[in-house]
Design brief:
Elements lengths: L13 E5 L8 E2 L10 E4 L3 E5 L4 E6 L6 E4 L14 E9 L5 E7 L6 E6 L8 E5 L5 E6 L8 E8 L2 E6 L2 E2 L1 E3 L14 E3 L12 E9 L5 H11 L6
């Protein structure tokens, strides 16, 4: 780990930090603690380097169902129910509608949570929490556009969810989120729905991070300002 990594205030409560520094192969790894060792590159998303900054990232093709998968047995700490939690990733989408950044939910959407671009014009973002039966809550953001890098994130604080784009609160339609039911039996997926069954990302992603606390607005802003030069945003 880099010197000072654990001492950075923004890294407190960080459970997942996928920096994609391998540059080759069919696995990527987690820099956070607790450490998730093997995150599989399913159907071989393409290792890519941004020449201007030297950052390695992954390009995903929806047509060939490419995504990242952390098995259920290794992702129990990402199965949030009563607690607060937050997530961030840098994304560049070239297609709209039903594209997933994070998903920890069972098949049929009975339990768990997901952060994604819904199947609607825009595209906006949504954080959804699922409960057994027909109950679920959706918080929506404004559009993130296409074919441009954006830092997207969300923060759940009790019953309140806010969505952030490029370090700014972009929440348009908030909801009152009751606790999601456990999806402990589901894999944690980045770039598709549960078990990679649908919702495949089309474009590129980097830097998936998840915390077991609600990040503040100032923390989202600071993360964006610290990393924006990597993507010339």
């Amino acid at each position: 780990m880099p010197r000072g990594y654990d001492a950075l205030a923004v890294n407190h409560g960080l459970l997942l930090d996928v920096r994609m520094r391998e540059g080759t192969g069919v696995l990527t790894h987690d820099w956070a603690r607790p450490h998730h060792e093997d995150i599989a590159l399913v159907n071989t998303p393409t290792w890519t380097v941004r020449a201007a900054s030297g950052v390695e990232y992954l390009a995903f093709a929806a047509a060939t169902h490419e995504y990242l998968n952390l098995p259920a047995a290794d992702s129990g700490d990402l199965d949030f129910t009563a607690g607060n939690f937050s997530g961030v990733a840098w994304v560049n989408t070239n297609a709209t509608g039903n594209r997933y950044v994070f998903c920890k939910a069972v098949a049929g959407w009975a339990t768990g949570w997901a952060f994604y671009i819904p199947a609607t014009a825009g595209p906006p973002l949504a954080l959804v929490t699922f409960q057994a039966g027909p109950t679920s809550q959706y918080t929506y953001s404004s559009s993130i556009g296409t074919n441009a890098w954006r830092m997207v994130g969300f923060s759940r604080d009790g019953a309140s969810v806010r969505i952030y784009v490029d370090g700014e609160d972009a929440t348009v339609t908030p909801a009152t989120h009751i606790d999601p039911d456990s999806a402990a039996a589901a894999d944690f997926v980045m770039g598709a729905t549960q078990a990679g069954a649908a919702g495949w990302w089309s474009g590129s992603m980097w830097g998936h991070r998840v915390w077991n606390r609600a990040l503040s607005a100032s923390e989202f802003k600071a993360l964006f300002e610290f990393e924006r030069d990597l993507w010339a945003v």
